[in-house]
């Protein structure tokens, strides 16, 4: 599959901070690629370099085969960008925010109006077209940023935390629209802290930490590899903790204790549950999740 992004040995230093550290990555055309990482992992910095708003310290980025440092203007025409913050123009109405944006892409007036109306209706904002930005709720502003990103019919959409702060209804609307765009062949790159979002939308996910990619695979592949499809959990009585530890160590399973609950990864789950149940332990099993993988790889401590 051809690469939408070819990132090689990419590094970004801010004075003494290395935000992105010699990172190489291919993102394929037509896929939805999810970038996960704790605060400060370097996700926004990576997105800023990809969107040409922050210069690279080292390395190269090719987008649809073009060198980003040589042809930034052409590359920007491929993009729809949904930034983390709200950079809407408060002086303009909702629809004017879109039609003015269309001018950067030299889309003629009538076509711009049509596209703006289409994008507004896609994100259920048509009734606000003439309204002021200051009268929009936070969720509406985010939806407007998404609508604005579609104005140039982009081949690639880059979204930095697209659904943060949205209520569940708006979040599902956004997910549904992103899936529709993907089915039309648009390449999506999203950063998120929302594990469900990453699992639901992404074909592949990279887990980023301290400027590097720690793991990269399909959501299912990451779960299978790092924690197993099912995780066994045990909540032992305090006096039985030692017995449980001995039992788990004897079986050689990988486990972690989280607030008195033992989580066991990559085990023969049915056998383990039955055996521990017979010994009188309070034991159950659940599906392994991307969140388990994330915590396992990036740790429980606050990183910042
Ligand atoms: N303009 C800047 N000047 C100096 N340091 C910066 C700047 N922007 C980011 N950093 C630092 O670079 C590192 C990566 O930050 P970045 O914002 O890229 O992480 P992130 O993964 O997007 O985090 P978050 O999820 O909190 O947005 C952090 O240590 C951050 O403090």
From TrEMBL:
Residues 5-235 form the ABC transporter domain. GO terms for molecular function: ATP binding; ATP hydrolysis activity. GO terms for cellular component: plasma membrane. Gene3D superfamilies: P-loop containing nucleotide triphosphate hydrolases (3.40.50.300). The keyword Glycosyltransferase does not apply. SMART domains: AAA. Keywords: ATP-binding, Cell membrane, Membrane, Nucleotide-binding, Translocase, Transport. The keyword Translocase applies. Pfam families: ABC_tran. InterPro entries: AAA+_ATPase, ABC_transporter-like_ATP-bd, ABC_transporter-like_CS, ABC_transporter_ATP-binding, P-loop_NTPase. It is found in: Cell membrane. PANTHER family: ABC TRANSPORTER ATP-BINDING PROTEIN (PTHR42711), ABC TRANSPORTER ATP-BINDING PROTEIN NATA (PTHR42711:SF5). Belongs to the ABC transporter superfamily. This is ABC transporter ATP-binding protein. It comes from Dehalogenimonas etheniformans.
């Amino acid at each position: 599959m051809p690469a939408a992004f070819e990132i090689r040995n990419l590094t970004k230093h801010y004075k003494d901070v290395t935000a992105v550290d010699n990172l190489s990555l291919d993102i394929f055309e037509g896929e939805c690629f999810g970038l996960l990482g704790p605060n400060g992992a370097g996700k926004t910095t990576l997105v800023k370099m990809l969107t040409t708003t922050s210069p690279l310290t080292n390395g190269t980025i090719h987008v649809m085969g073009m060198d980003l440092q040589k042809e930034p203007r052409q590359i920007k025409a491929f993009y729809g960008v949904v930034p983390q913050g709200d950079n809407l123009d408060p002086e303009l109405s909702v629809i004017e925010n879109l039609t003015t944006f269309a001018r950067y892409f030299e889309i003629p007036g009538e076509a711009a109006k049509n596209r703006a109306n289409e994008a507004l209706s896609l994100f259920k904002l048509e009734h606000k077209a003439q309204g002021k930005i200051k009268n929009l709720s936070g969720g509406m502003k985010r939806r407007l940023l998404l609508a604005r990103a579609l104005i140039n019919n982009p081949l690639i959409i880059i979204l930095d935390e697209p659904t943060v702060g949205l209520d569940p209804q708006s979040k599902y609307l956004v997910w549904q629209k992103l899936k529709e765009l993907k089915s039309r062949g648009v390449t999506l790159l999203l950063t998120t802290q929302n594990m469900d979002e990453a699992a639901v939308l992404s074909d592949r996910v990279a887990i980023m930490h301290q400027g590097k990619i720690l793991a990269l695979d399909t959501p299912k592949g990451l779960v299978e590899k790092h924690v197993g499809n099912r995780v066994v959990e045990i909540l032992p009585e305090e006096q039985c903790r030692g017995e449980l530890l001995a039992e788990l160590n004897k079986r050689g399973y990988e486990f972690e204790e989280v607030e008195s609950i033992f989580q066991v990864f990559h085990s023969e789950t049915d056998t383990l549950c039955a055996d521990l149940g017979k010994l009188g332990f309070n034991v159950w099993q659940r599906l392994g999740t991307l969140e388990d993988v994330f915590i396992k790889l990036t740790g429980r401590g606050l990183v910042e």
